[in-house]
Amino acid sequence: GEALGLWWRDIDFDAGRLTVRRALRRHAWLHGCQGAPCGQKRGAECPSRHGGGLVLDEPKSRAGRRVIGVPAPLLVQLREH
Question: What is the pTM of this model?
Protein backbone atom coordinates (compact mmCIF):
# COMPACT_ATOMS: atom_id res chain seq x y z
CA GLY A 1 0.00 0.00 0.00
CA GLU A 2 2.83 2.41 0.73
CA ALA A 3 4.36 1.93 -2.73
CA LEU A 4 0.98 2.61 -4.35
CA GLY A 5 0.62 5.79 -2.26
CA LEU A 6 3.84 7.38 -3.56
CA TRP A 7 3.72 10.55 -5.63
CA TRP A 8 6.50 11.98 -7.78
CA ARG A 9 6.99 14.86 -5.35
CA ASP A 10 7.85 12.29 -2.63
CA ILE A 11 11.14 11.58 -4.42
CA ASP A 12 14.11 13.88 -3.80
CA PHE A 13 16.31 13.13 -6.80
CA ASP A 14 19.15 15.38 -5.61
CA ALA A 15 19.38 13.76 -2.17
CA GLY A 16 18.61 10.24 -3.47
CA ARG A 17 15.74 9.48 -1.11
CA LEU A 18 11.99 9.16 -0.98
CA THR A 19 9.59 10.03 1.81
CA VAL A 20 6.69 7.73 2.69
CA ARG A 21 3.75 9.99 3.60
CA ARG A 22 0.68 7.95 2.66
CA ALA A 23 -0.55 4.48 1.79
CA LEU A 24 -3.36 3.16 -0.37
CA ARG A 25 -5.87 1.24 1.72
CA ARG A 26 -9.12 -0.55 1.05
CA HIS A 27 -11.91 0.55 3.39
CA ALA A 28 -14.83 -1.81 3.88
CA TRP A 29 -18.20 -0.73 2.47
CA LEU A 30 -20.99 -0.08 4.97
CA HIS A 31 -24.69 -0.77 4.50
CA GLY A 32 -26.60 2.35 3.55
CA CYS A 33 -30.09 0.91 3.65
CA GLN A 34 -32.42 2.64 6.04
CA GLY A 35 -35.81 1.38 7.08
CA ALA A 36 -36.27 -1.88 5.20
CA PRO A 37 -32.98 -3.80 4.86
CA CYS A 38 -31.80 -4.51 1.32
CA GLY A 39 -31.43 -8.24 2.03
CA GLN A 40 -27.74 -8.36 1.21
CA LYS A 41 -25.37 -9.95 3.70
CA ARG A 42 -22.32 -7.78 2.96
CA GLY A 43 -22.19 -4.00 2.85
CA ALA A 44 -20.33 -4.18 -0.48
CA GLU A 45 -23.45 -5.67 -2.10
CA CYS A 46 -25.91 -3.11 -0.70
CA PRO A 47 -27.26 -0.79 -3.44
CA SER A 48 -26.99 2.17 -1.02
CA ARG A 49 -23.50 1.32 0.27
CA HIS A 50 -21.16 4.06 1.45
CA GLY A 51 -17.81 4.72 3.10
CA GLY A 52 -15.73 2.14 1.26
CA GLY A 53 -13.34 1.70 -1.61
CA LEU A 54 -9.71 2.64 -2.13
CA VAL A 55 -8.49 5.58 -0.07
CA LEU A 56 -5.15 7.34 0.35
CA ASP A 57 -4.47 7.41 4.06
CA GLU A 58 -1.60 8.15 6.44
CA PRO A 59 0.59 5.18 7.40
CA LYS A 60 -0.74 3.28 10.41
CA SER A 61 2.16 4.06 12.71
CA ARG A 62 4.65 6.84 13.24
CA ALA A 63 7.38 4.46 12.08
CA GLY A 64 5.49 4.11 8.78
CA ARG A 65 6.25 7.75 7.95
CA ARG A 66 9.90 7.48 7.02
CA VAL A 67 12.64 8.44 4.61
CA ILE A 68 14.19 5.70 2.46
CA GLY A 69 17.39 5.87 0.44
CA VAL A 70 17.02 5.18 -3.28
CA PRO A 71 19.86 3.44 -5.17
CA ALA A 72 21.45 5.54 -7.93
CA PRO A 73 20.50 3.10 -10.76
CA LEU A 74 16.85 3.30 -9.72
CA LEU A 75 16.99 7.12 -9.63
CA VAL A 76 18.28 7.06 -13.23
CA GLN A 77 15.38 4.84 -14.33
CA LEU A 78 12.83 6.97 -12.49
CA ARG A 79 14.17 10.13 -14.18
CA GLU A 80 13.94 8.45 -17.59
CA HIS A 81 10.39 7.39 -16.88
Answer: 0.68
